NAD-dependent protein deacylase (Sandarakinorhabdus cyanobacteriorum), 229 residues
Amino acid sequence: MNIVILTGAGISAESGVPTFRAADGLWEGHRVEDVATPQAFRRNPTLVQQFYDQRRAHLGQVVPNAAHHALARLEAAWPKGNGFDFLLVTQNVDDLHDRAGHNHLVHMHGELNSALCTRCGAANPWRRPLLDNPPCPACRQPGGLRPDIVWFGEMPYHMDRIETALAAADLFVSIGTSGAVYPAAGFVAQAKAAGAHTLELNLEPSAGTPLFDEARHGPATQLVPAWVE
Ligand code: BV8
């Protein structure tokens, strides 16, 4: 019995982490698509570094919620091996799933708590601001660190592992995502093609809802623990 779970910003909303497309989907007047691109970083590195420095600092004020903890309990209880496997794929760049406790977790869009060196390619655990151009811990060169975030137009991380898991999935559960961003929005179709049962747990119908065998709507902190139990 192989399960693949995909989460999006909606699972962290009740922890106080803003979603992308709530209200008008703007951040200080900027569309995410305008600040989360390599072009934006080249054009205005200060704006982009500030965008991520602020979100990284905010992690210190939020904690995992009942939905994060329920998924951690599910992974701990899920058998591994002999036809059983568990993979949690998150689009989120916050560390709330990590803090809830997981071993089978991948961040396909990168992480706020990591800094990527454009000089040597190293990804470094990182919690401080990047705005003041600190040296890379790996190569010691200054001025090369960027947020270790997958921007629009960049290739998401862990795609081989994700596609392999989707091809073998018996159950695919999507939690708290609008189904607006690819390739994540295409995972339900890939799981379905592999014969998986597909379930959506989301506050309201999403762009992908028609593709799911089953959809339940409500807040993640109610839907996810109820589903896990
Ligand atoms: C790539 C990091 C190619 C940044 C992010 C057409 C087809 C295929 C692709 C494209 C296409 N057109 C354009 C593209 C490319 C593009 C794309 O999909 N654009 C969209 C806008 C159309 N995709 C890419 O560029 C991707 N890369 O395609 O590479 C390639 C191939 C080869 C070689 C090189 C390149 C990269 C996409 C990654 C972008 N980075 N994040 C950052 O975080 O700052 S995406 C960003 O949006 C976040 O990661 C977020 O996870 C993601 C999706 O948003 P959601 O998580 O779903 O959040 P959202 O606010 O939208 O929705 C929240 C949901 O929760 C809602 O449904 C709401 O109802 C629900 N909710 C709210 N509260 C609750 C709740 N649910 C439960 N309980 C609650 N309390």
Summary: The chain is about 30% helix and 20% strand.
